[in-house]
Amino acid sequence: xxxxxSFALPSAAHPGRVALRVNSLxxxxxxxxxxxxxxxxxxxxxIRLGAGQTALLELGEAPDAPERTPKEAGLFHVAFRYPxxxxxxxxLARIEASEYELTGASDHDVSEALxxxxxxxxxxxxxxxxxxxxxxxxxxxxxxIDTRPLDLGELSALASTTEKERTSEDETDLVGDSxxxxxxxxxxxxxxxxxxxxxxxxxxxxxxxxxxxxxxxGVQARYGNRATFLAAGEYHHHLAINTWNDRSERPxxxxxxxxxxxxxxxxxxxxxxxxxxADRGHAVKxxxxxxxxxxxxxxxxxLSTR
Length: 306
Fold this sequence. Notes:
alpha+beta
């Protein structure tokens, strides 16, 4: 029986692959390939997309899966972190040349972020981190995340000449070849990663307890009693949860988030986390170097060491 209530995940822990359930790969894949800039390959009704040698996103085709209702918890957005501001500027150039529209663009002091939705309606954030030494801190040591309008003109000016030329060509096809099983090289740097996952919860306190007392994330910021930002180590957030839209039901087999992963630094940490979650009444399934568990809102979490 685990009794260590002070356990905290090591700073090396971070979000892993995110899996989305969509009704049409042909409709959704081009967005992630040509706008977000991911590369990948197809296996049957599933496509894995990523940067460099790392898979970041898994899309599974489920044409009969119903849409998530306004009452159901689930994904608020998945956030892709680019390694520098120039890469985010290139992404903005691709968005501006596409059929997709931004739903927001914010300077958070810790990051600069672009927001939009994929063709299936999933929220997507594209961002880069400001230098860590510039992140503002609260008196209690947390992160002070602000939200101000982002100067898109200034960001756009940083886009590379190559990207501007590519996206300004009359024949640029941002829809892509939906029948192509092997995609061409992505324009994003190999260091691009899943920066954080933002979830919609039913009961904020209950879900926060699962990820803090169970998983071992630390609270970095709270926004009243409606949102909490959490992280391993001193990052601004690896996970956010909110109740802004008053969700009240767990989804099951719906379109949207199928599961998301969290990568732990070693097998010892994985064993410890799995034990803590089981001790707190959560059903944990082990399989080699992985553990599977479901949070209080019905979100499936996969823990692994790689």
